[in-house]
Design brief:
- There is one protein chain.
- The two termini are 14 Å apart.
- The chain is of the alpha/beta class.
- It folds into 2 domains: 222 residues, 3-Layer(aba) Sandwich (Rossmann fold); 165 residues, Glycogen Phosphorylase B (Rossmann fold, 3-Layer(aba) Sandwich), CATH 3.40.50.2000.
- It is built from 17 helices and 14 strands.
- The strands form 3 sheets. A 6-stranded parallel β-sheet has the order 2-1-3-4-5-6, with helices on both faces. The protein has a 6-stranded parallel β-sheet with strand order 11-10-7-12-13-14, sandwiched between helices. It has a two-stranded antiparallel sheet with strand order 8-9.
């Protein structure tokens, strides 16, 4: 039996790991161990999949670490999803190692400037990996504990696999290092070529796709497509179906303060699309707001509202043309074979360069949307779904690495 250690943060990272673990957990050839960070544990718990967190790993020493962690976290947890003890343990372990590496005063300065971005607990992960003694360490492309786990595995001579969820335009700075991980699984050929250009060997990179996107073609999703069509867009009306996936546009980029954003961009796009539909009666529009947007939907003829509770993926199958700024929805739409327009005026455009990668047709100004929509509609061009069995592809790579 081969022992695997998965390390994953929450959000898109755990969603990438989850399909793999589900397929492997009942396979008698594998012993699955998971270190779940931040919100990942709640996701795994909901699926009935065992995992551990920092608190479980340091439970015996928690009383010694508690004071350090509480100073950083406060007396109450800031999250309803992550347990307070877990947050305290996570901060304490990471900060203690920061002090061990840099010294007390420098660690305090670095943490005050960078917060959790300063954490890289390589020594703690070496200790954890030694205790578990896996045949393979598997992480996604997160920069702190996951990165530390791969660095630790390499120092210990244990094979490591990095699953790259999207485009890795920031992460290539360290994942592109030839000594980082034994193998990479990436989204598409564009990402693979980027890593090769940064010095990775072709033999160390496999295009597997992202397992989180396999669900785009699940029976559950496909069974809801007809419902989405009838609710919003009855097919017999022969209208061209536009879908706008809105997202927040901050005033300042969260990781680059030199980049300033137009906070009104999402509404400017929506207003332009509403105007276009009003003036072109062969089109209709579905609008879906990001869960963090506080926007009231304004009714309009041939403009429909998609609630967050409704199946986004089913809706993507039901529409004809998708408009985004830099939302992952643009990539998902491309994967199911839909035409995509990206408004390349977002603060996040360079983080999700859809038009550069051939995923979308880009416009640099909101006022260009109408002509671009008409051009695509008149061309009658279509794209083919990029259906990959990404989960099986990744598992094949895992099997190759543990059988070496």
């Amino acid at each position: 039996m081969k022992k695997l250690l998965f390390i994953t943060y929450g959000g898109g990272h755990v969603n990438m790991i989850l399909p793999i673990v589900k397929l492997l957990k009942n396979n008698e050839n594998f012993n699955i161990n998971i270190l779940a960070l931040t919100t990942a544990k709640a996701v795994l718990d909901a699926e009935g999949i065992p995992s551990v967190g920092f608190y479980d790993l340091v439970k015996g020493d928690f009383s010694k670490l508690k004071e350090i962690g509480q100073k950083l976290v406060g007396k109450k947890s800031a999250s309803n999803v992550v347990k307070y003890e877990e947050s305290v343990a996570y901060h304490a372990v990471n900060y203690k190692e920061l002090v061990d590496v840099l010294g007390e005063s420098k660690a305090a300065k670095v943490f005050s400037e960078s917060g959790r971005q300063a954490f890289l607990p390589v020594e703690f992960m070496k200790k954890t990996i030694r205790e578990i003694n896996p045949d393979l360490v598997v992480t996604t492309n997160s920069p702190r504990t996951e990165r530390a786990a791969i660095l630790a595995a390499r120092q210990l001579g244990i094979p490591a696999l990095c699953l790259v969820d999207l485009f890795a335009l920031q992460e290539v700075k360290w994942i592109g290092d030839p000594d980082y991980a034994d193998h990479l699984c990436v989204l598409n050929e564009s990402v693979r070529s980027m890593f090769i250009a940064h010095g990775r060997k072709e033999s160390e990179i496999t295009v597997t796709g992202n397992p989180a996107f396999d669900s785009l073609f699940s029976d559950k999703v496909l069974s809801k497509v007809a419902e989405a069509e009838e609710k919003f867009l009855p097919r017999e009306n022969s209208k061209i179906r536009l879908f706008y996936a809105s997202q927040l546009e901050p005033a300042v980029h969260p990781f680059d303060e030199s980049l300033k954003g137009d906070t009104e961009l999402p509404r400017s796009i929506e207003n332009k699309l509403r105007e276009f539909v009003r003036e072109n009666d062969s089109f209709e529009l579905v609008v879906r707001y990001h869960p963090s947007e506080n926007v009231g939907f304004q009714p309009q003829e041939r403009v429909y509202y998609s609630k967050p509770s409704e199946s986004l993926h089913a809706l993507l199958h039901a529409v004809d043309l998708v408009i985004v700024t830099a939302s992952t929805v643009g990539l998902e739409a491309h994967l199911v074979g839909k035409q995509v327009i990206s408004v390349d005026a977002s603060i996040f455009t360079r983080d999700a360069p859809f038009s550069e990668m051939g995923i979308s047709e880009g416009v640099t100004e909101v006022d260009m949307l109408g002509e671009k929509i008409k051009a695509i509609a008149l061309s009658n061009s279509t794209t083919n779904p990029e259906k990959l069995d990404s989960t099986t592809n990744v598992i094949d790579v895992i099997k190759r690495l543990v059988d070496k």
